[in-house]
Design goal:
Blueprint (H helix, E strand, L loop, with lengths): L4 E5 L4 E5 L10 E4 L5 E5 L11 E9 L4 E8 L9 E9 L6 E11 L5 E7 L2 E2 L3 E3 L6 H21 L5 H18 L8 H32 L5 H20 L2 H18 L1 H14 L5 H19 L3 H25 L6 E2 L7
Parallel strand pairs: 6-12
Antiparallel strand pairs: 1-2, 3-4, 3-6, 5-8, 6-7, 8-9, 9-10, 9-11
Length: 348
Amino acid sequence: MNQLGLAFCSYCDAELPVAAPSDVTPRPIGVRTSDGSLEILVQAGTRYPTQQAIRHDFHVIANPGDILEIALHEGDLQPAERNDLCGVSMYELPEGTTGTKALTIAVHLDKDRSIRLKTRLDGASFARAVFLRNPLPPEFRRRAREAHGRYQKFLADWRHELTQVESAVLTETAAALVQVVRGEAFGRSLDTLLEDADQLLERQQNVRWATALAYRYPRHVAELMPPEDLEAMRRHRSTLKSMREAADFDRGHKIAEEVLSIRRRLGENLYQVMSALALASHNGVNAALQQRVQQAGDGLTAAARQGDLAGVDAAKSRITDLYRDMLREQAEFRAPERKTVRPEKPAR
């Protein structure tokens, strides 16, 4: 083995630097690209700490609200996910991010082999990230990355409907997941963290949905509900509001389950009637279809108040037919869903 310092290479006819094996990266470090392949950023054998950031240019094709994922892997296998995951940073793309944008990724290796990552999109810098070289099992990092993606999407989609304390708890959990993804040591069982995170998000999704149902049923189809179910929905709506503001997630989950149980008991037909009337009331469809639904809804209310069962059935049938028309229209004109985008290497 050559000694540290300069060694003469007979093949190159030149002196070359020789570093200690512990001071070089044993395997390359790369980023996962949009097609799943690994694009090398730091070559194997690179000395660390690096004197300056190693920069690479990419581009990304995205829309506002999409999530940009920068996932670094150590290894030289294809596709990228066959290699060890170093860490992941995810950024919600701002307004104005439409089409193809220039993306620069810069990495710096510190003396402890931790990775400092800087990402610049179309001239604007995102928050920097540091991935520690703590050898957490890749499976935990993968699960944490997937869970964090679900949290980030939920927070982005429903930020305006979450209470302040709900947003704080969800954001705190998302931050804990980021710690795992970045390889930082965590103070409690990783299995417990991931299971608790999954359970919290699932319950929050149920609570949000139950809150909407507890408002919409009494608002739109009160005349068609059994009195005890109508009263329960109104009571649960008030209780859910209090539980969400107090961050009583366990009780809120139980109330949400009761709301969902009432929804199942009332049946799919009434759910479709309620949904059609709710969409029409929020201008969720074109004006002509909205008017037909509202007219059918007025006829339904009048028939129910007069005890005209045949009229009620006819109006419900009419509204469910219109509901299917509404769904077709929404599918046709639905805005693009928020998606995860990754770097693309410019054509050479």
